[in-house]
Amino acid sequence: MKFKSILAAALAGIILATSGVALARGPWAANKGNTAGWQIMTPEERAEHQTKMRSFKTYDECKTYQEEHHKLMMERAKEKGLALPAMASGYGCDNMKARGFLK
Fold first, then answer.
1. Pick from 21, 44, 58, 103: CA 20 to 30 A from residue 4's CA?
2. What is the pLDDT, as a whole number, of residue 34?
3. What is the pTM of this model?
4. H helices of 1-103, where?
């Protein structure tokens, strides 16, 4: 079981590492500098979060999800005894709106 987890994590890492250029071309690319809780998310959660963020059509639905995600990551960090910085403006939904990807 442990081997499967290690293998899955390694494959996810390879996929994420090799797709970085393609992801950067999209409306938003998740990374440790713009995603609350990045360090406490699994590679699968990171990919799922990025896909979700890219799925929004309006700023309001994006912002609602982003705020809920940040709250969830704050709770998870608190359980682990970690502190997350306050959600910065200019990232995620704000950036996507500024670039014309959200209405």
1. 21
2. 79
3. 0.68
4. 2-18, 20-24, 43-55, 59-79, 93-98
